[in-house]
Write a structure and sequence with these properties.
The complex is a heterodimer of chains A (413) and B (220). In chain A, 48% of the residues lie in helices and 17% in strands. Chain A is built from 13 helices and 13 strands. A 6-stranded mixed barrel of chain A has the order 5-6-11-8-10-9. A 3-stranded antiparallel β-sheet of chain A has the order 1-12-4. In chain A, strands 3-2-13 form a 3-stranded antiparallel β-sheet, with no helix packed on it. Chain A starts with a helix and ends with a helix. Chain B has 220 residues and is α/β, with parallel strands linked by helices. Chain B is built from 7 helices and 10 strands. In chain B, the strands form 2 sheets. Chain B has a 6-stranded mixed β-sheet with strand order 6-7-8-3-9-10, with helices on both faces. In chain B, helix 5 packs parallel to helix 6. Classes of the chains: A alpha+beta (413), B alpha/beta (220). At the A-B interface, helix 1, helix 10, helix 11 and helix 13 of A face helix 2, strand 6 and helix 3 of B.
């Protein structure tokens, strides 16, 4: 039966080439956009590449401080003291790492000044994140403890600063401090690993950061297994109320949360800094609704085109009914035809999406972006395609399957 | 075999109600060749559609093999149509996008039969109507008479008990019409009940019984 459906679908689509081309274009562009969005979302939230252990680690990025009556508040990145005093002793975490947010620094070479994005990190940072080291090594615990002026560059910056020569072993003046380049890592565009240059925390020009409750740090908490994530979240939620500020008259309550990447984005976008619930479910629902809405307009267009197409086949519907096809069978036939067309559109959309992603990577619009269409994106694309096929196919198919056989045979749909 | 009792059928178009059939009582017996005659618009085709369960009566009851068709549930009626009836239409109604063999196979798609068996039966049906060599042709590559023979093969492939033919020779010249009639008579002689709507008195007489419809009513 499926062969018969495929055969007739092929004939119908090749008979009306312009119609099929418009249909396919509509499906392909819609699915291409959705696949690009899916791939970008997957790159942001799914454990992959350098942040491949993100199903095992959480980030604590923000400390909300309140005064006694709650009339005054301050929201800032964590101070190093919070990490040292409250997060490092955590029982549920296997490893706690501290890293600053990115900061623009000037690098001086002869008469040339280059601006780079710098992060300072401890040794744990390099253990939690799986950087691909292209040359040399990453800072060790000893480098950090001894405050050695060593730095790691990413591939692009190494090429830019030392064209045609090896970066490892070279000296570099970063904001007035002299560093030795000890390693080169692959470019990364991910939440915790994006930067051009990395140096040990202990190379900070001042030691004041050690005593600050609010500062420029994030903590990465690594669990033994993904199953321990809720335990770490609960422990951080318990720790926050115990935080004691240096001046309790100014600040005496604190909020901080250990978030997954999705939680982190949701909390920031939905401004849920003081609530335990980050609003990730709301964010996911909003993304799903937006994607559905994006599909809805072309789907409605396809509904119209499909209704017209099926109406031309009312005699066929009449014949099939006369020879024993029930309405349900006909719905299946027409939906199957539409899903087949959508799958072809989905395949073309996948190829185009790959092209768009390559263009995005090369254009530099999003620095160091590396997005791949892997199996899970392909699987999501397949689901999106089938949903799109069903959305645009069910209504016309159902409408036409209800045709009275006598009317259908007269071609009076 | 098929009994129609007190059947009436009206069509509602805008504000006008048209009476298509009134108080029809008819018994189609197993193995007979019933010809339905009457002027255009008298309700012949409506009667044939009711017999073949393509349409529902306004009032009255239809029984098939002693079982009254009551609910007219889409699925049940579809199954009954598939297993009991074969249809032949005046304008053939073949699907031009499918090869002859696929057209003939169509009724079998709605039965649980393996593909090879469906194919075998479709070939057999086509050979019976002398079109074994045209299996891979498309309908528009055949003459009108050949197309109607394909339609006969399609109607007979599921070995239905009743063949319903709505002016089967209406679009054919006399020679092709005669060939088609020969096939119908042969099928009837082999045991298939045939109900045929026709305008042609000579063709009607090749059947075993003639009924006449006038203004929606059976006349003697």
């Amino acid at each position: 039966m499926l062969k018969n459906y495929l055969l007739i679908a092929w004939k119908v689509y090749t008979r009306r080439k312009l119609f099929t081309a418009i249909n396919l274009l509509c499906i392909t562009i819609t699915l291409m956009v959705l696949l690009v969005v899916t791939a970008l979302l997957q790159n942001a939230f799914y454990p992959t590449g350098v942040e491949g252990k993100s199903d095992r680690f959480l980030q604590v990025t923000t400390l909300v401080s309140l005064n006694k009556d709650g009339s005054s508040s301050r929201t800032s990145p964590l101070g190093y003291k919070v990490i040292e005093q409250y997060l490092r002793p955590m029982k549920s975490a296997q490893l706690v790492a501290a890293v600053t947010g990115i900061k623009t620094v000037s690098v001086y070479q002869d008469d040339r000044v280059t601006e780079l994005q710098l992060r300072r990190a401890d040794a744990g940072y390099w253990k939690i994140l799986d950087f691909k080291v292209l040359d040399g090594r990453v800072p060790s615990a000893e480098d950090v403890a001894l405050g050695r002026f060593v730095a790691v560059l990413n591939e692009t910056s190494a090429r830019k600063l030392f064209p045609g020569s090896k970066a490892v072993g070279q000296k570099l003046n970063v904001g007035g401090q002299k560093f030795e380049i000890i390693g080169v890592v692959e470019d990364v565009m991910q939440l915790n690993s994006y930067a051009d240059i990395w140096a040990p925390i202990s190379t900070d020009p001042s030691t004041e950061y050690r005593d600050q409750m609010s500062g420029e740090f994030s903590a990465l908490l690594l669990a033994k297994s993904p199953a321990d994530i809720p335990r770490m979240q609960a422990e951080v939620a318990q720790i926050a109320p115990q935080i004691k500020f240096d001046d309790p008259k100014e600040w005496n309550q604190a909020f901080m949360w250990a978030d997954t990447k999705l939680d982190f984005f949701a909390r920031g976008l939905l401004d849920n800094e003081r609530a335990p619930n980050s609003g990730a479910a709301v964010l996911l629902t909003a993304i799903a609704v937006l994607m559905l809405m994006f599909m809805l307009l072309p789907a409605l267009n396809l509904v119209n085109l499909n209704t017209g197409r099926i109406m031309e086949r009312s005699t066929e519907i009449g014949v099939r009914k006369a020879f024993g096809a029930s309405s349900g069978t006909l719905v299946l036939q027409f939906v199957a035809e539409n899903v087949i067309l959508c799958l072809v559109g989905g395949l073309l959309g996948l190829i185009l999406a790959k092209g768009v992603l390559i263009w995005l990577e090369n254009s530099g619009l999003i620095p160091y972006l590396k997005v791949d269409i892997n199996f899970s994106v392909f699987f999501c694309g397949l689901i999106i395609t089938v949903v799109f096929g069903l959305l645009s196919g069910v209504i016309p198919a159902w409408k036409m399957s209800r045709l009275h056989p006598v009317q259908a045979l007269k071609g009076a749909a | 075999m098929i009994r129609l009792q007190n059947i009436s059928k009206t069509y509602q178009t805008d504000k006008v109600e048209t009476l298509a059939l009134k108080d029809i009582n008819l018994h189609v017996k197993k193995g007979e060749f019933l010809s339905i005659m009457g002027p255009s618009g008298c309700g012949k085709s409506t009667l044939l559609n009711l017999i073949g369960l393509l349409d529902q009566p306004g009032t009255g009851a239809i029984s098939v093999d002693g079982m009254e068709v009551k609910s007219y549930r889409d699925k049940d009626v579809a199954r009954l149509r598939n297993q009991t009836f074969g249809f032949i239409f005046q304008s053939f109604h073949l699907i031009n996008d499918l090869q002859v063999i696929d057209n003939v196979e169509l009724p079998l798609l709605y039965r649980s039969l393996p593909a090879a068996e469906r194919r075998r039966r479709a070939k057999e049906a086509l050979e019976k109507v002398g079109l074994g060599a045209r299996m891979e042709h498309y309908p528009n590559q055949l003459s009108g008479g050949q197309q109607q023979r394909v339609a006969i093969a399609r109607a007979m492939v599921g070995k239905p008990q009743v063949l319903l033919a709505d002016e089967p020779t209406g679009n054919l010249d006399s020679q092709m019409g005669a060939e088609v009639m020969d096939h119908l008579v042969k099928l009837n002689q082999e045991g298939t009940t045939v109900v045929m709507v026709t305008h042609d008195e000579r063709e009607a007489k090749r059947g075993s019984q003639i009924i006449r419809v006038f203004d929606g009513q059976l006349v003697a």
